[in-house]
Input
Amino acid sequence: MGALFRRPWHDEYFTAWVASLPWREVVPTLAQDSGPPLPYLLTKLVAAGGIGELAAARGLAVIAGTLAILVVARAAATTAGERAAMWAAALLAVHPLAIAWSAEGRAYAYLLLGAALVWDGLADLARQKRGAAKLAVGVALALWTHGLGVILLAVSMAVVVLLPGPARRRALTAAGLAAVSFLPWLPVMLQQPVASVTWMQRAWQSLPTWRAVLAPWELLVPIARFGNSLDLPSAPVPVVVAGAAAALGLFTFAVLALRGLGALPLALAVGPGLCLAILAHLSLPVFYPGRGEALYLAPVIGLLAAGAAHGRGTALLAALLVAAGSGMSGLTLGNWKSTPPRPEEHLAAALLTHLPGGGFVLVEGYWRLGLWYHLGEGRSRFDVRVFPPAADAHPGWYEGGATPADAEAAFRYLTAAVEGGGAVACVLPPPPADSALRPAAAAAALTPVARTAGAELWVRRGAVP
Output
């Protein structure tokens, strides 16, 4: 349902755009952005069957998220018994993060599934000396879908110390094979610009100290303040505190009852979270709330489920968390369904209205992909480019940095286009925001015709009806 209700946004536009490119252009395009290619390649393959790129990307995410629930239930059964499996499936199925990741065409549902497969594979190896294939697939899936997969690889190789000797060797071989499979992408990953993710570093540095300490853990409970960083609702603070207390109680019971395989989900839950927290505190751009948790939400859910299987009292706590998570998820779906059109939708509609025959569009800001998507069949009539020119090579991220020379070149280009009788438009940040392109647009006789939250549309006066 969420995949049907949720309005697409910038990162999904990027997925759809990359999937629409010719095969030979996919890798060079991603080399200017961030992340491995698997989500885009799978989307492109599915879309080749006549499905829209965004529908293909979201459909794949739904499948990955559903499989993650099944795999987590199986891993919980192996680790803590059938009762824990039931609670694990229920807790993950209603968790707002899992629903969000499964309702968008991005990498996080794959990452969740990869982490679940790693846990399941390690648990099988420990109990039956089988499961190496699942471990290898899980690590490889994480590596090929998101940069954070490297952390899952490192944690997986560290956790094998908990396995008996023969199983340990199989696990190391499986993780090693997954790492080898990733080697062809490594040169591309190393050349991807750090600037594409520096926004994450700025976001982390803007957090108050207390929030930075809690950030890797605060959204793991099915009822939390999700709205601080995602398009999800936030529960009232007293309810969040109560939910955190219930989760802490379940976690405590699970840890106190640890025996045998119970240490696996604990290590897989704590290891990635600590790695992300340490790297982020070292000012590396690796963590943003609501994303990196895909590495360790599955084993965290497993620990809560193990606690729930401890007795009637803990089962009641788990039932309250499931009920709260169901309420949050229901509210999420309602909010998504009632979300008004995004600014880029209004901009695209205004472009089609004022320039029905198409034309040249110069965009200052991160609106290019949103315009590309919402122009739909009309996009072939428009030549949409990003200002400054250096940003045009990487539509997936925008850092600005226009120079006076860029502004002068834009003025000359706009003036020539207007004098040539062509239809011209600019998308600019609205006042009082700074805009290096606005003076050039005004000097070239463009005039504002539409304004949305975060952007203005200027067109050549002769193009206005």
Remarks:
- The two ends are 40 Å apart (CA to CA).
- The beta strands are 359-364, 382-387, 424-428, 446-452, 455-460.
- The chain has a mean pLDDT of 91.
- The CA atoms of residues 27 and 37 lie 7 Å apart.
